[in-house]
Amino acid sequence: MSEPVSGRRPRLSRERVLRAAVDVADAGGLAALTIRSLADALGVKPMSVYYYVANKDEILYGIVDIVFSEIELPTIGGDWRSEMRRRATSARAVLRRHPWAIGLLESRTSPGPATLRHHDTVLGTLRAGGFSLEKTAHAYALIDTFVYGFALQEAGLPFDGPNTVADVAEPIMERFMTGEYPHMVEMATQFYFRPGYDFGSEFEFGLELILDGLAS
After folding, report:
1. Rounded to an integer, what distance in angstroms lies between the CA atom of residue 210 and that of residue 40?
2. What is the pTM of this model?
3. Are the CB atoms for 115 and 128 separated by under 8 Å?
């Protein structure tokens, strides 16, 4: 009797192909995501990938839907403010895992089921919270503009967390010694470089400010 084959790769599926595409994009950005790189990651020939996705554009539609599926959905009928805070915090965390997705989330003209479910639930939560149609549109746009903008800025920072700020800032500070930038020196030395300062904390401050404004 022959021995069972070990180490065999699981059979391909559309879900597995798209999950692998997310992994490739996470590792090298969208520029690294091609049919060939995806096939290499899956350990198959490129033609095998084409059986599940027609082209890169179809891959992008699929992985955007995966990203939306990872964001926590608010609960329609719950306290709208708590639900919007939870959803925004989750969106930021997901975009930190997948920074390549920041500019893609709202760019698809044929959104997938997870994307549609996400938008419908957020809208339903705001409507159930007493927002008019007009105010719902304003609130959704305002919150997402802040979340996506913050995620984009956070992804572009040259440091990672409060403990690495000083290392990055030291050569920059040398240019401040001319006295031409007194306000930047003041902010840097008396606030940004203080022990424990974390740019990430600005997210909570900004989000609460927005929610306060919407509540009023």
Report:
1. 45
2. 0.85
3. no
